[in-house]
Amino acid sequence: MAIEMEQRAILVGVDTGREDTRASLSELAALALSCGITIAGMLWQKRIRVSAAYFIGRGKTREVADFLAETRANLVVFDDELSPSQLRNLEAALDCKVVDRTVLILDIFAARARTREARLQVELADWQFLLPRLVGMRASLGRQVGGVGTRNKGAGETKLELDRRKIENRIQSLKRELARVAGEQDVRRRRRRSAGIPLVALVGYTNAGKSSLLNALVARYGQNRDKQAPAEDKLFATLDTSVRRLILPDRRAFLLADTVGFISKMPAHLLQAFTSTLSEAREASLLLQVVDAVDRRSGEQMEVTRRVLAEIGAGDTPILTVYNKCDLAEWPYPRVQGRNIFMAADGTRPAGCAELLGALRAALWGESGNG
Ligand SMILES: Nc1nc2c(ncn2[C@@H]2O[C@H](COP(=O)(O)OP(=O)(O)OP(=O)(O)O)[C@@H](O)[C@H]2O)c(=O)[nH]1
Ligand SMILES: [Mg+2]
Fold this sequence. Notes:
CATH class of the largest domain: Alpha Beta
Number of strands: 11
Number of domains: 2
CATH superfamily of the largest domain: P-loop containing nucleotide triphosphate hydrolases
Largest sheet: 7 strands, mixed
Strand content: 15-25%
Helix content: 25-40%
Bound molecules: guanosine-5'-triphosphate, magnesium ion
Strand order of the largest sheet: 6-7-5-8-9-11-10
Oligomer: single chain
Radius of gyration: 22 Å
């Protein structure tokens, strides 16, 4: 494993008319770049529905094969999760390594996981994803623990024999360990609840500015003002929940939780594995949905957030929507309009924390006022 081969990929999507395929492919490109993959080209096909055998049509598959030869690419990345048989068929037809959006997301999560809990959750999602795909997997893939497919890991890492029974045992033991961690957190959460301090959770699409907003609020109202969460211009900067206690000038307090960001076609296994990280969102009495106001897909991103929240059992929690990054837009801000807050948490002209706090007080305690 000393030599790291450059991974040159062709990205492939299917346009069934349900989403903006080009935008989705450019998001896929961002995911691929985060995995250290070079993009050699992109293509997509308009179809009423995807093909059960190859995801794309047979003719299109041949086109991808030609494109591979032409661009000397060595990887094909599909924009949707492939079924185990689609994956097998495509690898056989293209004679090339094939991965999908889910693999990229899992790999980014694996690379970013820092805490023990996040690592356990990512590993669980990895194995659950791999298990049904073991049959007929290309021997050359050399998949390893903690990374589903695109990352080259350093030498010296244990190569697990891809033995179904061993993997099933590992999945069971990961679940047990995670249940233990979740149990400890439950105790902490119960203690918090009995103290009667409301919990507010930041939720939303990745890179919308949740951690930046947490930091802006902590800097003004935090109990420990120096406890900042990492905010970065990259997908999935946050994989762990951090909870901060905020105290308003009138001594009223609430807890604010930062959570992992969502993305479209969020892998189901990943969501399941991250249940405990997402429990803050599930147990919050109020959600602050952070939206990148200048992203042209913000509507779709809100829809993704709505769906994921419903999936994790937080679909009925009251919500305030924060249109963030208004410094990059042409609108007046800061401003509150019903349950919507227009502000900038970070950037050249951050503003709107007091307005947000006002809306938050009204939602939490039924009062108006300016924080
Ligand atoms: N211009 C501008 N940039 C912002 C604003 N808020 C956040 N950003 C930038 O957007 C990027 C993402 O911010 P984060 O706070 O890390 O986003 P997040 O929602 O926590 O992302 P994940 O943790 O990946 O889910 C960072 O580079 C921030 O500096 C804003 O109001 N204006
Ligand atoms: Mg974050």
